[in-house]
Hints:
Shape: globular
Number of strands: 18
Oligomer: single chain
Bound molecules: ligand TNX
CATH architecture of the largest domain: Alpha-Beta Barrel
CATH superfamily of the largest domain: Glycosidases
CATH topology of the largest domain: TIM Barrel
Mean pLDDT: 94
Number of helices: 15
Amino acid sequence: MVTQRVRTALVAFVLGASGMVVGSADAAVKSxxxxxxxxxxxxxxxxxxxxxxxxxxxxxxxxPEATKPAEYLAGVLRPSxxxxxxxxxxxxxxxxxLLIGADARVGDxxxxxxxxxxxxxxxxxxxxxxxxxxxxxxxxxPPKVEAxxxxxxxxxxxxxxxxxYPRFAHRGAMLDVARxxxxxDQVKRYIDQIAAFKINYFHWHLSDDQGWRVExxxxxxxxxxxxxxxxxxxxxxxxxxxxxxxDVVKYAADRNITVIPEFDxxxxxxxxxxxYGELNCDGKKRPLYTGTDVGFSSLCIAKDVTxxxxxxxxxxxxxxxxxxxxxxxxxxxxxxxxxxxxxxMNKVLPIVKKHGKTTTGWHEFIKxxxxxxxxxxxxxxxxxxxxxxxxxxxxxxVVMSPANKIYLDMKYNKNTKLGLNWAGYIxxxxxxSWNPGSYLTGVGEGSVRGVEAPLWTETIxxxxxxxxxxxxxxxxxxELGWSQSSALNWDKFAPRLGAFxxxxxxxxxxxxxxxxxxxxx
Length: 521
Ligand code: TNX
């Protein structure tokens, strides 16, 4: 009998003219391949193939660089599947393979993911790329894979070949632990949540008027006094020891996330000014502050001790921080005269450099220097800013965080109980509808380092509060930072985002169920 070759149903979801993942041989077949956030560059569905993770499956690694991504993957899969999933060198049998070496198109941070009947193979040039592929695989598995207790399978993955890489090098999320303090466990919970969406920088806002949140051994009263309260006046030891700081830095690194510590200066410094009288021009300690005003505090620009203090803080924290960036704030220095602000930055920028870090800061600081290595973070609401555009022209790379688009502390609408509205209401569609590569005049695609979604916490007190503001706008920011501009299309994004509802319910994520999104039941 003549064997009839069964034609493989190979369906390409490639970037269409509208830019989104398009096309399916059978539109009725809704698979997890069409529900990925951020949208990958290229997805080919192999509709006749399904991989099923077996109880005896292994996670094979081709080289030591794959160890961390493999451990991260095992950490997700073992509790819910109940499988042992040993990590083994070399690839044999069935299971998941993480290999170094991939198509040149994936660059340093992308990956290829191929699903065959026997294996899921993730290839990348670096561990960073493997992490990204692993997070895609999580989303291809059924939502209950995210459960912390053993669930019934089958653990299926739809047949596919994916090739994917990020649009921008920098996808960030910021958490303000100064206005309200969050424990190490709460911070780790948020780090887990952002890692799942391929966020690779965690910007940790560690000091402000209301609190100083990390132990500085050479200035112990910063935490003893400055870390004793928060907005609303709660009392306690509301700070991290250096050991706890390092623990979080490692936890983030194990999830492919680089920590960027921020110590805001010269304004937003009341907690420091309350801890040490000598940091004030009149030599007198300020009272602790538990309100939510901004712009009233300033370090004393004229005193040498101010720079000794900053040198010590930058030195101690830099020694604990493997990442290349140190964030010096620099925003809303409304109580610092302009000339003083320039004088201050001219002294502080070399201190950061001396300790081996690259300075990043809120965009105001960029007017004080022509150093093209500096990274301004744009948080304004206007579509043009002369100083930032000038910096971009000189060659600086900008992180985009326009407050009226991607500030996670802005209310969704007038009925949102948490949050502020000074930059407007930001519904999910508003958060999605801007192009980071062309938003700011004179700051084109090539001048954009990436996108960061900041979460200020004047009104945010619990993990449930964090999640309500971040979900679903954090995944929005992740897509704007990762997916190609040609892939950005609200009508196609909304159902992809809505498909996360069952997953977030299993994870216990307190998301805002916006009526703009068709949430999956
Ligand atoms: C402005 S944005 C601030 C913060 C506030 C935030 C509230 C920026 C760089 N500074 O101090 O917490 O607004 O949305």
